């Protein structure tokens, strides 16, 4: 579902809910205004973060969901507060659920360009904000209506014709609504449903107010009461009549909430978890008491009641966690939760980025301090540690999803990075020229940096980097063989281009000028890695055709993604045949391989930007500029190589 | 003394040369690149026809058309010849070249598969409902024919005949060239009239003629053909053509359109005939009946996880229940049926669903897969041999003692 669709559907649901809620004056009562007096304990954070929840088609820990939500709103998984302190994802979500008034003051929303706000009439200069800064809900709330109207009118413009400010306006409006939905998650259990006058209500509940658990427990009596009151018309009991609109409006406003409740064992649809909304709906519709779900609802209600009593809160949370996780475990859905928590905690790709960066810096230092054995060993260590983190992270993602390593565009980034580093490390082992290590740590740094940046785009568009896949991709056989092979071809092509850069730049800056063996080794490495790339690119591309033949009935359809893969194969074949035919010498060959890196980038990212064809699975908004910059740099390198050749020709020979 | 080469030797040398190979690869690269970009504005079908399924790219200057670049068919044909001559015949058949020869053989085999597909395959779709089609109120659960996505035909049959009359068909290639004022007469001994067709329009709307637009050809009974630009998806085009029948010396005229709900009906010599324009139908050696269509969404989402159809295949051997689903087609009787789509996807729709199967008749269906394994074998041999040599050389260089400066 794209941003516009998400926005549209959330907008429709929430506008109705909010209007109804405002009409009834619910907000004053539903939102708890109390402030948290002490920080959440580690035990609470750990237990709450590992609560299972169904989101995006699979069960995941709440910590993961918190991280995704915060990443979408804030661009980071950690929130920096006004006083400079930092709030991690799980405590932030705890505050959103239990202390929504506090959460409204957190600067959770990143506004990349303040023109978005200026267009709404916000004086961005007045509050000492930067052009790209973070805002709280309460800062944006006065302009909410204006923002929503503007977003609705922009959403009618085709996405291709929207400018960045338009796109950011829609995102901000979507984020605002999603945040409202988030802080309203516990509204159904927080709300005290009040009697309208005196009568049956008080008899049923023994009070003027009732909780959601009580309402669900007395669903049969309530239904009968409503029927009686309806049959009696104006003369009937009105005390419970007013309950229905309260219930509808509160539940409607929490429709976008997370699904915490595994479906009861006797329910027909066993795949979809329930939100509080679903429990109430099915209880009344089916006129059944779902005894295995009700205690969980009661536990959430108790959590809300005990939120200012740390020991009672912890004790209730322990009970809820035990119930929830044991049900999920019995359903075979809890197994990956500990893995995902570990993955979130270790954050291997950031650690890999740091290792590769350090390795590259040490490698660069090695060019200045020659023949230092310890420096060389340090670079090896950094490259291998970074690679270890990368491979570990990819393996964990495979185990969590039960899928091969590459499914989404985000996967391609981390996988290609690791393959580049692995092949670079192997080539370094074989050549010992410090070229393989330097290039692989550079590509490792660039790749992990790209993964870090792209994660936000994919989460913003698909909701997760481990999102559910469309029907045609639901085959591990072809995903494992075709996609993995093609991405290995991409990795080889990029690594070959990286090594070829060393040849060109080395010649340009007159490095090891008389060392012909050095340049011969680079050439051999480039050739070898190009052959590696071609092997996987051709196999992967044709295997893609075989998959297409089984899925769509044609081996080759000239679809942009297929053509992108074919372009890589053709270009690499051209490089090899031009070399074998003697049409290009060393310089021409490495220059063609550098250009081949541009072809790989076009196939990897460029074809998705065309937004046509059957393979448009990736989300690449914002990738176009990056791609143009990369191509621009490569054109510059190729131009410099040509210039170097001309300069050398014109130099007088000794 | 330089030995003169014979003409045959010169030709084979040129045909098998690296230069020709590089030119073909370069041409294919350019075609693939621009053919991909062309799709953004013009759609896939047009791009395929213009860049890949033709011999040349054509330009027009001063009303004169001329070829300016080799297109897919020519580039791939010449590359195949180059591969055969240079990569299989002229290459030294030695152990060293084993991998390369196998790769070239595999690519030639794959090109043959492409040629087979281009010249002998038929593509279409079979759309079946779980029950009655809500629009037509007709039971459309079973069919023994599939329908082309893009080709049209004109069918003529006698109505009210006691026995089912055979349809007479005018195929697409007999009238799709009749643009503008061009016309063609079709006769048959089985028909008491001749049918004249003219003014074929690839994508048209037939509507009451108004003052705001110019009709293509004659306006008939107040209706005219409005020519529309070709759709990006060629299967969305609705063709139209002018038809004329001479009955007792009196011409009867009509506009036939691909989206008309009922055929043109004429009475000739006491018999009633129907003339209809529709997408080309291909008969299948069996009937497919949709028993059940199952669509599953990912839990808690509107994204489709899988869709599949339980069908019954009936032929002279009897009935057989078959499951057709994404990535698992039915291959039977020279046809392949793929689960390709479903509908209606209207939100909150609660009626019967339809299941769409892409149907392909392709004699070279599995050839590309065989070619892939052959090519992969060749690539593996070549790569592993190169890697082995490279590794041995590098390790021996590393193990050499570093010379000590005196």
Structural description of this entry:
The complex is a heterodimer of chains A (654) and B (406). Chain A is mainly α. Chain A has four domains: 3-189, no CATH class; 194-305, no CATH class; 347-462; 469-654, no CATH class. Chain A contains 28 helices and eight strands. Chain A has a two-stranded antiparallel sheet with strand order 1-2. A two-stranded antiparallel sheet of chain A has the order 3-4. Chain A is elongated. The relative contact order of chain A is 0.07. Chain B is an alpha+beta fold. Chain B has three domains: 7-120 and 366-384, no CATH class; 122-134 and 283-361, no CATH class; 150-280, no CATH class. Helices cover 29% and strands 39% of the residues of chain B. Chain B has six helices and 21 strands. Chain B is globular. Classes of the chains: A mainly alpha (654), B alpha+beta (406). Chains A and B meet through helix 25 and helix 26 of A and helix 2, helix 3, helix 5, strand 17 and strand 20 of B.
Topology readout:
The complex is a heterodimer of chains A (654) and B (406).
Chain A: H1 3-24, H2 27-30, H3 42-49, E1 52-55, E2 58-61, H4 62-74, E3 78-80, E4 86-88, H5 89-98, H6 100-103, E5 109-111, H7 115-118, E6 133-135, H8 137-140, H9 144-154, H10 164-183, H11 187-190, E7 193-194, H12 200-205, E8 209-210, H13 212-217, H14 219-232, H15 243-253, H16 276-286, H17 294-305, H18 310-330, H19 337-346, H20 348-368, H21 373-401, H22 409-431, H23 435-462, H24 476-508, H25 516-551, H26 560-580, H27 586-610, H28 623-650
Helix pairs in contact in A: 1-10, 1-15, 3-18, 4-5, 9-10, 17-18, 19-21, 20-21, 20-23, 21-22, 21-23, 22-23, 22-24, 23-24, 24-25, 24-27, 24-28, 25-26, 26-27, 27-28
Chain B: H1 7-15, H2 18-42, H3 44-52, E1 56-61, E2 64-70, H4 72-89, H5 98-120, E3 122-129, E4 132-133, E5 138-139, E6 142-159, E7 168-170, E8 183-186, E9 195-201, E10 204-208, E11 216-220, E12 223-227, E13 240-247, E14 250-257, E15 264-268, E16 271-297, E17 304-315, E18 318-325, E19 330-332, E20 335-343, E21 354-361, H6 367-399
Antiparallel strand pairs in B: 1-2, 3-21, 4-5, 6-7, 6-16, 8-9, 9-13, 10-12, 11-12, 13-14, 15-16, 16-17, 17-18, 19-20, 20-21
